[in-house]
């Protein structure tokens, strides 16, 4: 795991955008894994800005796969994660909507939704770079504490705390679905490069547990310790509780530029 402490969310956005563009330039058929939520938004806005000013690579042959999707929202609901990622990112880089994928929450096919999504990812030859956020309790995607570190895409029940966290996107908590389809930790771990973003002091405890604590289902994000190519990008507030913070800063400051992330 490479830990990269920087000062601001903007610096995180630039580094993550650079990594995505470098991948797409080297492999125009790249497959990107995308997270929703507020933390990745600066990255997506940075990529859209570069696309609009003409400095970005072509995304015409790229495929994207969302981490998760609500179960129980009406088709086309503006807060579905498929609608959200199109609105916040993929429409902005003019990516064909047919290339933007998410788990299928069709109530008549829910029993097979996880297996079908796993098959879609395999058919695309796997995810090259997966963007991740981290929950305040260490959850990864919607894999809450106690989730198997080998889990695959499946339906999960949202905790009351997670529903409260997401209520800001709805008129009330009563409108927040109680179930989601989510990639499992095992699914996420198959991506070739994991790029986790964490910002704000509210994430500091989870960041410290993920990076310096034991690998445990009690902190699903700690599974990144076992990945051969995991990058953690932190702003200053999110990094404040790391015991080896000075070490991470020194290592990154002396990293050869040609290595990238």
CATH third-tier fold name: Rossmann fold
- Which percent range fits the helix content? 25-40%
How many structural domains can be distinguished in the coordinates? 1
Give the rounded overall mean pLDDT: 96
Q: What can be said about the biggest beta sheet?
A: 7 strands, parallel
What's the count of strands?
Answer: 10
Primary descriptors:
16% strand; alpha/beta; 10 strands; globular; 3-stranded antiparallel β-sheet; Rossmann fold
Can you walk through the features of this model?
By secondary structure, the chain is an alpha/beta fold. The chain has one domain: 3-Layer(aba) Sandwich (Rossmann fold), CATH 3.40.50.1360. Helices cover 31% and strands 16% of the residues. It has 8 helices and 10 strands. The strands form 2 sheets. It has a 7-stranded parallel sheet, sandwiched between helices. It has a 3-stranded antiparallel sheet with strand order 4-8-7. Helix 2 links the parallel strand 2 and strand 3. Helix 1 packs across helix 2. The chain is globular and about 55 Å long. The mean pLDDT is 96.
């Amino acid at each position: 795991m490479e830990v990269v402490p920087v000062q601001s969310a903007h610096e995180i956005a630039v580094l993550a955008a650079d990594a995505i563009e470098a991948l797409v330039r080297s492999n125009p058929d790249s497959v990107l894994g995308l997270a929703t939520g507020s933390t990745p938004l600066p990255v997506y806005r940075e990529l859209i800005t570069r696309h609009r000013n003409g400095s970005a690579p072509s995304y015409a042959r790229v495929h994207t796969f969302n981490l998760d999707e609500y179960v129980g929202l009406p088709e086309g609901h503006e807060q579905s994660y498929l609608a959200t990622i199109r609105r916040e990112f993929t429409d902005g880089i003019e990516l064909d909507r047919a290339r933007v994928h998410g788990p299928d929450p069709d109530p008549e096919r829910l029993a097979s939704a996880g297996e079908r999504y796993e098959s879609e990812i395999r058919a695309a030859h796997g995810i090259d770079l997966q963007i991740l956020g981290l929950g305040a309790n260490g959850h990864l995607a919607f894999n809450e504490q106690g989730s198997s570190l080998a889990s695959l895409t499946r339906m999960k029940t949202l905790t009351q705390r997670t529903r409260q966290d997401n209520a800001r996107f709805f008129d009330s908590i009563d409108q927040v679905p109680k179930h989601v389809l989510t990639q499992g930790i095992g699914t996420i771990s198959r991506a070739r490069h994991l790029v986790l973003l964490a910002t704000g002091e509210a994430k500091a405890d989870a960041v410290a547990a993920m990076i310096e604590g034991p690998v445990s289902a009690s902190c699903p994000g700690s599974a990144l310790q076992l990945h051969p190519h995991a990058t953690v990008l932190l702003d200053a507030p999110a990094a404040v509780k790391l015991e080896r913070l000075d070490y991470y800063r020194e290592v990154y400051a002396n990293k050869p530029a040609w290595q990238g992330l």
